[in-house]
Design goal:
The protein is α/β, with parallel strands linked by helices and 361 residues long. The protein is 29% helix and 20% strand. The protein is built from twelve helices and 14 strands.
């Protein structure tokens, strides 16, 4: 593999990262156009609904794109089921000599069609350059397309002994202010955030990322009986940033009141007792969500865990021990019977132990 290919693809990946938090539900894409070893145009996808990276780079390169090589971390799109025109025809018409791609688009509507179009246009196509880095960059998008449901991150703020609240329900604050800022910043990478109605009733949260995104950020509440209070901060801000409630049938007056306040209400047509998580994931997928951060509470996190509707876990562990049999665990839900029922995780190398000191007077 040519050193120049590796170098310029690394630049495309770095450009793609600049769109983090704003391109959702689209993937992160960066593009570099090189002629005679010199960059003549580059760009990245900056926001959903805006021009794609290839189009921006081609516009900046102008006539210098003819005979050049284009580097892009994701296969140029070739479908029209979106807000912007497909990129592959524009790339094919630019007079490029060669196109280098890190990975094929996992979207079934593309998945090789863009590369085939370029080859039929007489362009030399090289794929598989820095593929692993490209997959890591768009990991949620890749998983969502493969599983045809939103990528799910379970996030919990817990004590060192795995508790999220005291027996009385007090939880402010287990983690540090810096950790809470990190958690709010993490929200920006997802299409939306989901909590249970218990969290809303106890904390009255706003559930927005910090800093705010320019794109819509969907706040979702699992609320079988539609108990979301009209004076809550979620409802009061629903017209500025979208709020969706997933509930059950039979609460027409409450549904009308929420919808009149700007809240979207979706009703599970089959369930009794609780909203089905499999139905909820399908409904959110059809609504356009490709990634979802689930923040709790304990029963919601445990239910996602039990249903194996989880792709990644983020644990913010505050430096304290709660103890007590009644303190609330981070993951509730049904009790597993065997260790083989545990969800096995991979990620950072686990250290043999952690050592903490107790603050002295």
């Amino acid at each position: 593999m040519a050193a120049d290919d590796l170098r310029f693809m690394l630049r495309a990946l770095a450009l793609a990262e600049r769109g983090a938090g704003e391109t959702n539900p689209n993937p992160l894409v960066g593009c570099v156009i090189v002629r005679s070893g010199v960059v003549v145009g580059e760009g990245w996808h900056q926001r959903a609904g805006g021009p794609h990276a290839e189009v921006i780079a081609l516009e900046r390169a102008g006539p210098r794109a003819r005979g050049a090589t284009l580097y892009v971390n994701l296969e140029p799109c070739a479908h029209r089921a979106k807000r912007t025109p497909p990129c592959a025809p524009a790339v094919a018409a630019a007079g490029l000599r060669r196109v280098v791609v890190a990975m094929r688009d996992p979207n079934p509507a593309v998945e090789g069609r863009g590369l085939d179009l370029l080859r039929r246009s007489g362009i030399e196509v090289t794929s598989g350059v820095r593929t692993e880095e490209a997959r890591r960059l768009n990991h949620p998008f890749v998983v969502a397309q493969k599983r045809q449901r939103p990528f799910v991150l379970l996030k919990a703020a817990l004590s060192l002994d795995g508790r999220i609240a005291t027996a009385s329900g007090e939880s402010r604050w287990i983690t540090t202010a810096a950790q809470r800022r990190q958690a709010r910043a993490l929200r920006r990478r997802y299409d939306g955030l989901l909590v249970g109605i218990g969290t809303v009733l106890s904390d009255d949260p706003v559930l927005l990322p910090t800093p705010r995104t320019q794109r819509p950020f969907l706040r979702v509440v699992l609320d079988s009986r539609l108990r979301l209070p009209l004076p809550s901060r979620l409802v009061q801000t629903a017209r500025r940033s979208p709020v969706m409630v997933l509930g059950l049938r039979g609460q027409a007056p409450r549904r009308r009141a929420l919808e009149a306040s700007g809240v979207t209400v979706l009703v599970d047509p089959r369930s009794t007792g609780r909203v089905s998580l499999s139905w909820a994931m399908g409904a959110l997928w059809r609504h356009g969500l490709r990634s979802l951060m689930v923040e709790g509470g304990s029963e919601v996190l445990g239910s996602f865990l039990a249903a194996r509707l989880v792709d990644q876990v983020a644990l913010f562990r505050g430096p304290l021990l709660l103890g007590g049999r009644g303190s609330r665990p981070a993951f509730g839900g049904p009790d597993p019977k065997h260790l083989r029922d545990a969800l096995r995780l991979y990620g950072p190398v686990l250290q043999p132990f952690e050592m903490w000191s107790v603050a002295s007077d």
